[in-house]
Write a structure and sequence with these properties.
350 residues; 6-stranded antiparallel beta sheet
Length: 350
């Protein structure tokens, strides 16, 4: 369920308290997010945008003959996380050196350290979100980040658009104060990115309000792992939305094992050696190993529950669940889930 645009309130800007640890921590504790205008260098982000979208154009996602920086999507192409054709291009984008280095910007590291009063580093797994226009069924649903990234509740997400991102392009919206229950809410199957969502009744009972804005390049939204949030749908005619979605943690906190791997490597084999292959500097290669982080196993219960619900829903004729199982069977053939997805689909075809 997506809130009406008329129900969305403006994000509160925190530039006025930037650098004030006490004020930042108090506001984060009360509101569950901090939003800054121009926290990151716009020029660096626009250079990154040019590079990322040029790679996407080579991969067939950006319309031929257009300037890649405009982000005009190829009309015949639509795909998302979970599709093999998405990962093929995404992992080429993921090799970009600037994409990884920009997560180490002083402005970000200083701010997240001020918020926590701890030494913070970006987690190894950087994330880009690349969303096609009018592909709204796959929009990232209402959720908490902990179910996906785990580690500790204190981890911080830093979301930033790579280029301007007005509401219609599908920026992030947060549910103000939704971290206060201090627990992970029940998550259920969703076709959207991540595959898990919080049902409306569970968050609506909190009586809270949604906040977003027309983002400009350089703007950054920061929130902890329990804050409920979602992406708004990309309802533009032809523009692809590009954003950074990275996580930061204290150097003495544990990290979930899958967060030490490249993003979507579990869906299509991809190594750090491949990521770093064409880099001209080793400054940020394998940097996290210097901190001897405690690595803990991934808790599969969240994703397993979503998959089990998808199987049940598919048997009941839910077409979104059928679509999901079709993708799982295609990309994960031979695995336990891939085999089960194929079995359920065969049962339905009889």
């Amino acid at each position: 369920m997506i809130p009406n645009l008329t129900d969305l309130q403006e994000l509160r800007e925190s530039n006025d308290i930037q650098g004030d640890r006490t004020a930042l921590q108090s506001r984060m504790e009360e509101e569950g997010y901090l939003f800054f205008r121009q926290l990151q260098d716009p020029e660096s982000l626009m250079e990154l945008r040019q590079q990322m979208l040029s790679t996407m154009q080579l991969g067939g996602w950006i319309k031929k003959g257009t300037n890649p920086i405009d982000g005009i999507a190829e009309p015949s192409v639509q795909c998302t996380e979970g599709d093999r054709e998405y990962t093929d291009v995404y992992h080429q984008v993921y090799r970009n050196q600037l994409f990884h280095e920009i997560a180490h910007a002083d402005s970000i590291l200083e701010t997240v350290s001020d918020i926590t009063s701890r030494e913070m580093i970006p987690q190894p797994q950087k994330v880009a979100r690349l969303w096609f226009p009018k592909y709204t069924a796959h929009t990232t649903p209402i959720h908490q980040d902990y179910v996906h990234f785990q580690g500790t509740y204190e981890n911080l997400t830093c979301w930033a658009p790579v280029g301007d991102c007005p509401i219609e392009l599908g920026g992030l919206a947060v549910l103000k104060g939704s971290h206060k229950p201090g627990r992970v809410l029940d998550h259920h199957f969703s076709l959207g990115a991540g595959g898990l969502m919080i049902n409306g009744g569970d968050y609506e009972s909190l009586g809270l309000t949604w906040h977003t804005t027309d983002y400009k390049v350089g703007d950054t939204l920061i929130f902890p792992a329990l804050t409920i949030h979602m992406a708004l749908p990309n309802v533009t005619e032809d523009r692809l939305r590009v954003s950074l979605d990275n996580r930061y943690q204290a150097t003495d906190d544990p990290i979930a094992e899958h967060m030490t791997e490249p993003h979507l490597a579990s869906m299509s084999p991809f190594s750090w050696a491949q990521v770093y292959e064409d880099w001209d500097s080793a400054n940020y290669q394998y940097y996290w190993k210097d901190y001897e982080l405690e690595i803990v196993p991934k808790d599969w219960s969240f994703s397993n529950r979503g998959f089990e619900e998808a199987c049940q829903l598919a048997r009941e004729g839910n077409q979104e669940a059928v679509h999901h199982l079709t993708r799982v069977a295609k990309r994960a053939g031979g695995t336990e889930q891939g085999n089960l997805a194929e079995t359920v689909l065969k049962e339905m075809s009889k």
